[in-house]
Amino acid sequence: MRILHVSHQQLRKYGYLRVDWGLKLYYGLIKNDHHVQAFSDRDVAAFEAPFGIRDLGKKKANQRLLQTTEAYQPELIIVGHCDIISNQTISEMRRLCPGVVIVGCNNDPLFVPENSAKIEHRCEVMDAMFVSTGERELQRYAGKRARLLHMPNPVDPAVESFDVSQQSDFEHDLIFCSKSEAHTNRGQIVSQLRDSLGDKLRLYTPGSFGVAGVWGRDYDQALAQSKMGLNLNRQEGLHWYSSARMAQMAGNGLLVFTHAGAEFDSLFPDESLVYFNSTEELAAQVLEFHQDDAKRRHWAANGRAFFHREMNNKLFAQYIVEASMQVPYSHNYVWAS
Prior knowledge:
The chain is of the alpha/beta class. The chain has 2 domains: 2-154 and 312-336, Glycogen Phosphorylase B (Rossmann fold), CATH 3.40.50; 164-310, 3-Layer(aba) Sandwich (Rossmann fold), CATH 3.40.50. It is 37% helix and 14% strand. The protein is built from 11 helices and 11 strands. The chain has helices spanning 21-31, 41-48, 58-72, 87-96, 113-122, 186-197, 216-224, 245-251, 279-291, 293-310, 313-325, and strands spanning 2-6, 35-39, 76-79, 101-106, 128-131, 147-150, 172-175, 203-204, 226-231, 255-259, 274-276. Strands 2-1-3-4-5-6 form a 6-stranded parallel sheet, with helices on both faces. The chain has a 5-stranded parallel sheet with strand order 8-7-9-10-11, sandwiched between helices. Helix 5 (113-122) links the parallel strand 4 and strand 5. Helix 1 (21-31) crosses helix 11 (313-325). The longest helix has 18 residues, at 293-310.
């Protein structure tokens, strides 16, 4: 199938990237033998703009996307986080390719008002909208053109390539990576953990509490040197919502602690993720697994195996294609049961 994938590919980072779900989708489509044309909206805008000033290239980026669409004649268009691309351009793409299916993907949280507005806006012109929060939360966007579907955060075996569930020697016992302080009080939770567990284990907090953030290969190495990971979202309780951090940590074999409010226990097998409801419960669980390494290894190995078996980027990409085209599923996707 010819697929046009419109997504910010961060070309101008020149290898110094964050782990990116959009790239995992792109690679998964290729691994599944689809013919994929990539279009990086923000990079094209900067390349086409006078003096490389991206905001001056927005109109040109929309024109170049239409040019690409007409030349490539895709059967499916997947649009990621592309604020530069207007709904008017998407409607024109549909005119240029009669019969094309156009879907959107959004991996950001619904509790950020700007992002919720973006989803609602895109639903006006998309055939389907895939969101990384569970379908139960998506009914607020019902009634527009788009069908509403959940998509998970996938792992890529080429990216999540470590397996620290089999290690016993670490630099860090517990890692928490964060840089955003908007719409959240999670810093207070981490601070309480530092106070209660600081003399019992090595807590590493890149991006917080004066510790420098880590990116690219430095981020990979930080995970490879960590025993357990803390998955604190900016807000908790949205069905099946998590930062992509959970897949990145569990996919590398870290034992992951995540809030029970997202109800991931209905999606993941027993003895894989560790769920908590309070800071006190979290502290006790962290200490328990820190002191029982056999148990830590067992649960972490289960979590990693599940991600790589059931939430890898090949399955993720094929689900997006099959759900978009409304054909029978070729796999029993655990999140779509």
